[in-house]
Amino acid sequence: MSLEITLIVLLAAMFNASWNAIVKVGGDRVAVMAVITLFGSLISTLALPFVPLPDAASWPLLALAILIHTAYHFCLPMAYHYGDFGQVYPIARGSAPLLVTLGAAVFAGEVLSFLPLLGVLFLSVGVMALAFDTTTGVTRNPRAILLALGTGAFIASYTLVGGMGARQAGSALGFAVCLTIGNGLLTFLIALTWKFKSIKNIAGTNLVPAAIGGGMQVGAYWIVIWAMAYAPLGMVSSLRETSVLFAALISTFILKEGFGVWRFISSGLIACGIALTRYKP
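The chain above was modelled as a monomer; its predicted structure follows.
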């Protein structure tokens, strides 16, 4: 993976942690997610005239990615309802890279060499280790853990499907723009049927943070989809999950959730993982 792709995926990681924090602290989590994704779809609609439409061959994967992403948009805020940001985020993001790497090997015939594969393992163990902080241990809240693991499965699924679809689309950005339009509108319409009052309240009190979150959400996804068109799926997915480091800073200094010994250990593992995923034989 080139230095340029590495740096831009790290930017996506920072965006991802930031908009997740907005979902956590913004009020009714499902309503906040719905407004964020609506703004994301509006931004994507503005970008649509400037990108090529994806080839018809990629449309089935596009439709499937929209459905998976929409399910993810509901599973994630439910996990935040039951668990801390510093607990849920590492489990959800940390469980995804190995699943993506396995899926890429099975469905895309993409097998990493030993050292990059070891890097994926280090990154996965590192981000998962953040969930074992003494103040937010995984054994203390089983419901949050199950929802976080379900979120991780959705992340892995839409990453794999989206990455394969982008490669068939002819235009990775065109695929990503259409996807964020579709899942944003679908998420908002579903949420509107049972969270109308909460959505109205968010629109009146937290509209600016939600708009910023929408921009960061689509920006992060566009970057990752673009990177997956030019770099191995498992490596991009793993590097994106360094967003957990940014999440650790947010949970420590903004949400005041503490920074225990597990977070120091996991930071070292993540740093090793980044170095190994960039290895070129």
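The radius of gyration is 18 Å.
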